[in-house]
Amino acid sequence: MPTVSTSDSVVEYFVTGTGTGLALVHGTGGDAAGYEHLLEKFNDRRTVITPNYSGSGATKDAGDPLTLELLTEQVVAAVEDSPAEGPIDLVGWSLGAVVAAKVAAERPELVRNLVLLTGWASLDERQRIFFDLWHRLDQLDHDAFGRFLQLHGWTDEQLNAMGAKGVEEAVSGGIPAGIGRQIALNLTTDITDLLPKITAPTLVIGAKHDRMVPVKHSRELHEAINGSVYAELDAGHFALYEKADELAELINEFIHREAAPSAA
Fold first, then answer.
1. Residue 11 lies in a domain
2. Contact criterion met (CB below 8 Å) for 57 and 66
3. Which of 48, 163, 212, 261 shows a CA-CA span of 20 to 30 A to 78?
4. What pLDDT does residue 259 have?
């Protein structure tokens, strides 16, 4: 896999397909591999770039507390180092949506279309308490924390279909050791002031049954980004997997839409 160096890190990323660039940015505790099941839905018409930011994959840095500035720099470096020609389509999930929004606000020339899946702008008290509990559980018992994530990431319907065996199989896949640094970053994020600066056409996607980042946060993102389009999936926070086909259809319809005809 290719890597690219930034001011203080070496970023691992993956590339597949041809055409206009499409970068897929993972969330807290995720990695580039989390998008593998979607690649074939995009790479026939897009050069798909999946970076690992600090705390995931083989990306290396100095080990200091994470900042949005660092993660933004890493995503931009991977995009610019890839063979894709800009501007690109940029998709972010969860913390990745926060990072993607910051990229779009600060590097408008780089982003052709923006898609934000189950993200947030700032934390309310409920969300702050929830992420703090993540942090504490991860420090106390990493495996138990993994089960906690499964319990809150899926809808009840999906959990019942998976059963205890399915949950254990999901947990056995492991959680990146660097998730603690990513959770700590979650607790400090606030991109409220950046949202009015986003000029790229934007699709915000919420998940109706999201227990990790309640859907009101997606609705607030939509309200704060001028001209954005909103869609909602009948899923939990793991909509990326639970509603993969429906999600891919939404993204493809948005990034491949025809531009409205100009007035005579």
1. yes
2. no
3. 212
4. 53
Asked if residue 94 is part of any domain, the answer here is yes
> Taking a C-beta distance cutoff of 8 angstroms, is the pair 100, 90 a contact?
yes
Show the tokens assigned to 194: 């950046």
> Known catalytic residue: 190?
no
- Give the C-alpha separation, 113 to 202, whole Å: 6
| Domain housing 116 | 3-121+191-255
What are the structure tokens assigned to 88, written together? 């690109």
Number of structural domains found in the chain: 1
Instruction: Please give the structure tokens belonging to residue 147.
Output: 């089960």
* Options 82, 210, 222, 228, the catalytic residue: 210
Task: Kindly report whether the global pTM for this prediction surpasses the value 0.90.
Answer: yes
Lowest mean pLDDT among 8-22, 43-57, 166-180, 204-218: 166-180
Annotated catalytic residue within 9, 54, 94, 218: 94
